[in-house]
Amino acid sequence: MLPRAFARKTQFIRMSDRMAQMASHISNGVRAPASESDNRSSGHALRDLPKSNVFTSNLPADAAFPNPQASHSAPRAKLGPRQVRDALYTFVRPEPTKEPELLAVSPRAMRDLGLRPGEEETQEFKEAVAGNKIITWDENTGEGIYPWAQCYGGYQFGQWAGQLGDGRAISLFEVANPDTGVRYELQLKGAGRTPYSRFADGKAVLRSSLREFVVSEALNALRIPTTRALALTFAPHARVQRERVEPGAIVARFAQTWIRFGTFDLLRARGDRKLIRQLATYVAENVYGGWDKLPRKLPAGDIKEVAMSATSGVEKGEVQGEGKEAENRFTRLYREIARRNAVTVAAWQAYGFMNGVLNTDNTSILGLSIDFGPFAFMDNFDPSYTPNHDDHMLRYNYANQPSIIWWNLVRLGEAFAELIGAGPRVDDGAFVEQGVNSGWKNELIERAEHLIHATGDEYKAVFMAEYKRLMAARLGLKELKEKDFDELLSEWLDTLEAHELDFNQSFRKLSGIAMEDLQSEESRKDVAARFFHREGVAGGEGVARERIAKWLDRWRARVTEDWGKTGAADRQSAMKQANPKVTQALSHAFSMKASECANASHPDTSSSRSHGSWMS
Description:
Layout: H1 9-24, E1 51-52, H2 54-58, H3 68-72, E2 89-91, E3 101-105, H4 107-113, H5 123-129, E4 137-138, E5 143-144, E6 148-150, E7 153-156, E8 159-163, E9 169-176, E10 183-189, E11 204-205, H6 206-221, E12 228-241, E13 245-255, H7 261-269, H8 273-287, H9 303-306, H10 329-351, E14 353-354, E15 376-377, H11 401-421, H12 429-434, H13 441-475, H14 482-498, H15 503-511, H16 521-528, H17 541-563, H18 568-578, H19 585-600, H20 611-615
Antiparallel strand pairs: 1-9, 2-6, 3-12, 4-5, 7-8, 9-10, 10-13, 11-13, 12-13, 14-15
Helix pairs in contact: 1-6, 1-19, 6-19, 7-11, 10-11, 10-13, 11-13, 13-18, 14-17, 15-18, 16-17
């Protein structure tokens, strides 16, 4: 046990409960968006929820352990690191955790999965999320659903890294909410070594596990597409070696899919065109819900005007357009993946969220925020900031995130290129079996390059439309007109950067300003001070007051134009929903507590750590 780490354990758990509630209900007096399962049934036991293994039933397993029985009968030590080919996963069970302690659950995650209140108190739930019980597998009969770890690769910091995979994450099963019908894949992070652990131990430290637990639920509450966190379990006997020895933990997390761009990257690197096609088909049919759910070809016109008018309903075999414009179903899939990621990165930029490690293995095929390492929310507005202290070239800084996601999409496009470029020949028997022949290779290349480039224009247009929509709401406008982008939004961001003002807090403070406080130049200069730090303001107080006052005058006029003179209460309510006051507090408080817990087990380490230390 680690008595020093948990001398105030009761206080810590109380805090975990409070923070889970904050993640579930944004602390601004307004409830977070309703869960899909709200106002439905009271929930179910974990054992009673409908479960499946669609992923492992439809895709090839590691030949070394081709079925659950082969893996289950093998010594756990033999399931360690090695190269895995011609497969997308390996059957592997979690390593047991001695005397695990459930620290926290997310009430909203419980509801979204369809779990009943109080289910977390049952012994079976605790054992399942600690990896100590496989509730879907009968060891006596060898029947049921068996856990697995995914195989994928990735480009890390722009360089090909080879095979990566789930080195410390093990998926237990897929579970469907009976009320909503939404299917999720439940996974344990920190559950032990797998064939994809490389030189690592398969464990997760408490510090990083706390951070992932809270940011997953915070992003969901902010309406940002994300993977989710169900439970956080402390592993009291784990001694996890990182820069120092730290306490271990397991996060039970879930998502509609854990497939990444890197899953396709590895298949392309290995020249496995058959499996690329099989996986792409799986993604369309089982992740996106069917080929007919993908976007049809956009109508002619300015991409900025037509990008958001995409509709669906195209049959699987239909090809839209001719020549190099011919879009088959794989082109539609690629476009939808790009559109989903555009919407997500727009939300990151709008709320100042930085992933920190946007490698292709950390980019979701469904456009989810995924795999939280050195993430952060923006403090003082600095577009060049990255929370990753190893990112010396600032590749993954805040300003670069939209272009990096597109860079990742181009890598994905390279994996899809043959399927996209085939156009109407994509189902020809000779092409399916042997690939393109020299007679039409140039046609395929031209079409693939053209359509991938066109998808880039669509990605940019969807990103800008969503970013403008979100920032209009944050500024209290009903729409962001063309002139507003430069005169209001860009000037506001330039002001925050020049005077080193807090990004999210500034929008929150803007939400509470009454129009009557902005009637004169003097009053506007007085209001400007509300945005300053207690320690002062960079660039000089007088300069800052004058610049902010001028901006507030323009902002007052636009807000009045949209809301009129009688809509102040509605405008402030809408702004507070768009500008929650705990955007940063959620991440910071959990990170600080994690650091305190880790430090408590090391009396020679100071518990007062810098912002940079506990954000890493």
